[in-house]
Amino acid sequence: MDMQNSLLNRLFDAGLLIETGVDGLYGRSGAFEDVITRFEALIGAFGAADNAEAIRFPPGMNRAHFEGSGYMKSFPQLAGTVHSFCGCELDHMNLLQCMAEGGDWTKGQEATDIVLTPAACYPLYPTIAKRGPLPAGGGLYDLQSYCFRHEPSKDPARMQLFRMREYVRIGTPDAVREFRQTWMERGRQLIETVQLPVEIDVANDPFFGRAGRMMSNNQRDQNLKFELLIPVTSTARPTACLSFNYHQDHFGTTWGLKTADGETAHTACVGFGLERIALALFAHHGLDTADWPAPVRKALWG
Predict the structure, then answer these.
(1) pLDDT tens digits, residue range 103-130?
(2) How many angstroms separate the CA atoms of 106 and 65, rounded?
(3) What CDD domains has UniProt attached to this entry (predicted)?
(4) Owning domain of residue 94
């Protein structure tokens, strides 16, 4: 925890992150954003030859789609909803009185049709399903979105609102497994290009509850999830900065995604935690980008 606080305080002192009073919710400086912009361009260069379809979703998604995804069965502890005032004039007066008295004015808020996006790929599957069967060869998509997960922490690498860049492959089992393997190799090469230490290991998602522990074990046993790990605030417990996930036919069955041959499609994705990668770069190369090693600056700024 001391190493986490130390890095976080140094980032605050340097003005790279801006404190808001809420753990895991930070402003970012121009220098911090520039690193993310440059690194995203590097991701794009590594994936350019694949000609993925670029789609950018907002940080909120259709509540009905969220409910249909099954996310709440596995990760209720991470979900965030959007509520709003929906009352009359009298309700408004009561709300203001409640606030003046220091009460909990949020009890009068009602759920809207929007929930906060938990992962960049979640709005994609119902979108592609509406198009009908996939074209021959399946589909490949380039996504980026702000995402929300309710896990406040002093660890700067565990933000509540953060950006995720993803490539998602939808198609036959062989095609999506090949895609994941390709990006596991590319991911290592990409991170080594900016001179960060890297390790890839099998992993699991933070499934909730007793049943979740069984799901986590199954995920590991089947090698469905790998993570690319970089030490950010701890060498003993490095941070997952990229993830490589094979969902099998989960989303295909959930949304009725079909291949051109009418079979249920499988899906896989590679996800880049953009803030985490920027933090890793600052942690390893220093808080002033002008002092970063020349090969790193060349890779990012040309």
Answers:
(1) 999 998 999 999 999 999 999 999 999 9
(2) 25
(3) Gly_His_Pro_Ser_Thr_tRS_core
(4) 87-115
